[in-house]
Amino acid sequence: MAERSPRPILFANMAVLIGFGWLAILVGLTPVDARASALPSPDLLFCVAAFLAIRRPDATPAILVITLGLVRDLISGGPVGLGALTLWAGVEYLRFHRDRLLRSPMVEMGGVAATILSITVVQLGVLLLVLTPSPPLVVLGAGAFATLCAYGVVALVLRYLFRIRPESVENPKLIGRAARAR
User: Fold this and answer.
1) Residue 21 and residue 47: Cα distance in Å, rounded?
2) Cα–Cα distance measured from residue 172 to residue 155, given in angstroms and rounded to the nearest whole number
3) What digits encode the pLDDT tens for the residues 105-149?
4) CA 182, CA 177: separation in Å to the nearest integer?
5) What keywords does the record list, in alphabetical order (predicted)?
């Protein structure tokens, strides 16, 4: 059985998810264009949670991901719970397959793209099942593409600017520095 990160490092990594997740929610709610024909904004909360699930799986516990998803659903006015549950399912899928996704950046982007597409299809299916008006497929596709492009930018920023790298069991890191052995 693999060892877990020490508690202070675990809490610091969770704080990174809370901080960047809250920032992603607020940035996602910021109006960029007031026109009705504006392109949909990317799901930045998914980008942050997916990046941390692949790099630091202990930093994305289900209760925290669902809570952030519910906050986003309540603030943005979307169907409450649907976005949170699909966010959680996508993050758990990425966490489960993290060993395969860390092999190369192209494999990672492919896995994230498949997850984004799956989340979009599941959300559309649930909305159609409960007979709720759903956005046109072109808008959903543009949102999924925007999220995939934003994931690349978020991954570059978190990896190189904030130095969040994959966690190794032998040498746990607190954000960008190696933890001191006691």
Assistant:
1) 9
2) 20
3) 999 999 999 999 999 999 999 999 998 888 889 999 999 999 999
4) 15
5) Membrane, Transmembrane, Transmembrane helix
